[in-house]
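pasting Peptide deformylase for the record, 195 residues
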Amino acid sequence: MILPVVGYGDPVLRKVCEEISADYPNLKQLVADMFETMYNASGVGLAAPQVGLAIRLFIVDTEPFSDDDDLPEDERKSLGDFRKIFINAKMLKEEGEEWAFNEGCLSIPDVREDVYRHERITIEYYDENFVKKTEEFDGMAARVIQHEYDHIEGILFTDHVSTLKKQMIKKRLLNIMEGKIRADYKMKFFAKKGR
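structre below
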């Protein structure tokens, strides 16, 4: 089932999310719905707060980057089948050079900005079968994971841009809050909730 994506301004996007247990109600269905929602919106990642749930769960599928000619061929190949579920993730290390990439977010449609992130991460998480893992990722996979991890910490990519850039996008962010934008996917806007 395609879920509505929560738009910028909703307090759930600013919550530090809670851990869940293996018996979280309908977890497998929720994950399936999140993948369907993400694919419907042409995303490469989606975190539970973006569908209104303040839990430590996010998904990634970097397959769309496998066609990006700006990336090295070996990285493109590895991104083609990089599809993961992260439950109760905990970032252990962010290291290496910081590099810029023009990021967007399904909760903040029509806003894209360059964001600097570390090139390599080490993260601990549980997979969909609640098997605990500690893994290292780099390049584009690390970037997508960092973006989604920020969501479960109540951080948005716009928090990483300069004060000047924030001023420049302020009106667009307000328009998202008020539901004055059109996205190609189902959204739920904070300021339109019966106000």
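Strands lie at 5-6, 45-47, 57-61, 83-105, 108-126, 132-138, 187-188.
The chain has one domain: 5-192.
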